[in-house]
Design brief:
This protein is an alpha/beta fold. It contains seven helices and 15 strands. The protein has a single domain, classed as Ribonuclease Z/Hydroxyacylglutathione hydrolase-like (Metallo-beta-lactamase, Chain A). Strand 5, helix 4 and strand 6 form a beta-alpha-beta unit. It binds zinc ion. Zinc ion binds next to loops. Zinc ion (ZN) binds next to loops.
């Protein structure tokens, strides 16, 4: 198994790839979100995209989905034939489908795309996931996914809610956005702030937290504030876990 952070960047980051995860497990290989700079990172890392089974969209803000047309265009040009499953909220699917019109303009797409709504809980080919709505201006579905022996929580965007906290409390690894990087902020503006995440971290035993989606200009301050935290660090654009081991 492998959980790799492809990008930790906020929407307009100059330094980082837009936030996304690549996951390999016994059952399926997942891409979680596909912002505009994610395809380039996939090529750069030479990830074998023939092995991609599922794309999961937490929500459809541009920094989480605009890479879809490029990625599907690439898969078509690579002569992919295997079907691709896209998990997205039913109400958000028409926007993603309109992006796909750009993926293949001159001939029919060479493989089938299967669309599925995101449920509160479901099992896909033996792999279990749960999801819950965070507090974000565009409906965002946080994910708790069994990746072999690691239960991974990935927030997507938004502040924690009662429902997402329940999922976090079951997780072995929590990957959470900290889109409000002002470390003294006490209120949320559709993104999590450090103070609320720090308080939550103390309620999740020793579960490791990795923070991402912090604006470039706040990274140094957040990194400083995290130095006194035991279980919480800034996520890096690298492997978060492999073969059952969680990395720092
Ligand atoms: Zn968003």
């Amino acid at each position: 198994m492998k959980i790799e952070m492809l990008g930790i960047g906020s929407a307009y980051s100059r330094n980082w790839t837009t936030s996304a995860l690549w996951i390999e497990s016994l059952e399926h290989n997942w891409l979680i979100d596909c912002g505009p700079t994610v395809p380039q990172k996939l090529w750069l890392k030479q990830i074998n995209l023939h092995k991609l089974d599922i794309i999961y969209f937490t929500h459809i803000h541009p920094d989480h989905c605009l890479g879809l047309a490029t990625l599907v265009n690439y898969l078509h040009n690579q002569q992919r034939h295997e079907p691709l499953l896209i998990l997205a909220q039913t109400k958000q699917q028409p926007y993603l489908k309109s992006l796909l019109e750009l993926a293949c303009l001159d001939e029919p797409l060479g493989f089938e795309i299967i669309w599925q709504d995101i449920s509160d809980r479901a099992t896909i080919g033996g792999q279990h996931y749960e999801s819950a709505l965070s507090d974000h201006p565009v409906a965002n579905r946080s994910l708790l996914l069994n990746v072999d022996n690691i239960r991974l929580f990935y927030s997507g965007d938004g502040s924690p809610t009662r429902q997402t906290i329940k999922l976090m409390q079951q997780a072995d690894l929590i990957v959470h956005e900290c889109g409000n990087g002002n470390t003294s902020a006490q209120t949320s503006n559709g993104h999590s702030n450090f103070q609320e995440l720090k308080a939550l971290c103390s309620q999740t035993n020793n579960t490791p937290w990795r923070l991402y989606h912090c604006p470039d200009e706040h990274q140094a301050t957040l990194s400083n504030a995290l130095q006194t935290q035991t279980n919480m660090t800034l996520a890096k654009e690298q492997l978060l876990a492999a073969d059952g081991v969680i990395y720092g």
